[in-house]
Specification:
Layout: H1 45-50, H2 56-69, H3 102-124, H4 131-139, H5 145-165, H6 167-174, H7 176-201, H8 217-232, H9 239-242, H10 257-260, H11 264-280, H12 283-311, H13 313-320, H14 328-331, H15 348-362, H16 364-372
Helix pairs in contact: 3-7, 5-7, 5-12, 6-7, 8-11, 11-12, 12-13
Length: 376
Amino acid sequence: MASSVLLSSSPSPFLPYGRCHGRHGPTPSARAPSSLCSPKPLQSPDLWMISLTPNPSTFLRFVGRIRTRGTSIGEPETKDAASDEAPIGEDSAVFEMGKQKISSWVYFTGILGVVLFALNVLWIDPSTGFGTAFVNAVSELSDSHEVIMSILIIIFATVHSGMASLRDAGEKLMGERAYRVLFAGISLPSAVSTIAYFINHRYDGIQLWQVQSVSGIHELVWVSSFISFFFLYPSTFNLLEVAAVDKPKMHLWETGIMRITRHPQMVGQVIWCLAHTLWIGNSVAVAASVGLIAHHLFGVWNGDRRLASRYGRAFEVLRSRTSVIPFAAILDGRQKLPKDYYKEFIRLPYLTITFLTLGAYFAHPLMQSSSFQLHW
């Protein structure tokens, strides 16, 4: 919970935090003209021309694209913009070592340490933090673990999606970095509380089915959870923006996992929830999965709305050649995969996801014991 929020029971990894509300990544090496990815939506090719940078090669390529579309002045449009295969969004998951600064990653490490320390002191530690009081207050609303689980997810979803919706106004008011800090400062505590409650009460519900002893179920759940993390972690496209070391941006990604689905975090969340609900098989898991999937389905609508507002026609073109349902645009011919499509996944961010997912799986006992100590 864009994005993604729960820790699972063994054998599969925990649910990552964060939403697919315009995730971040490094500037691609090849992209459409800057006017197409401007924060201010431009509604016509004539207006696009005004905002072009005075780079001759860029100008000529752009004019060529307009002419091939049949949108020159006085000429009717003879070709749908969606059929233009030239990338209009950004190349996702690009990581160029030559452009990295050691100082930026030093800052990132320092900020991460400070955030984790503050989160522990102000929220997690029962002797100093407010987390225990928060969970206890919510727990007093009902004797049902399913109801409490649902309420915690609703609180997180409201905070997370609400602040994402207010991002444009918030960034204008206080700046991109300050708003990112505020966003994380409010979202992280509610995410941690939801995760811990799920871990501690995941087996307290009514058992609906029991298939853990069935041959092949463990492997199915493990593989499904592993795959889900490649959809769930678009934020790793640029960790420096996530930590506000680089100025956070709302990106219009188009390559890599985005060719399969325009909303990978929603797809990953659905896969994760189905796998874990199958494994646990009780009413608490069902309640958690229903809440998380509903939150991410709302994120599909909200994410498209925000991108359309920010990018205008550029997003409409991208939407016309991508799909929410995985592989749908590929199967119906709207998305043309390049011959070397696999190379879009042989990149450091995806390798990082692989190691983090394996690490989370093997760290399950540690995460569970830490959560149990909180008594949430």
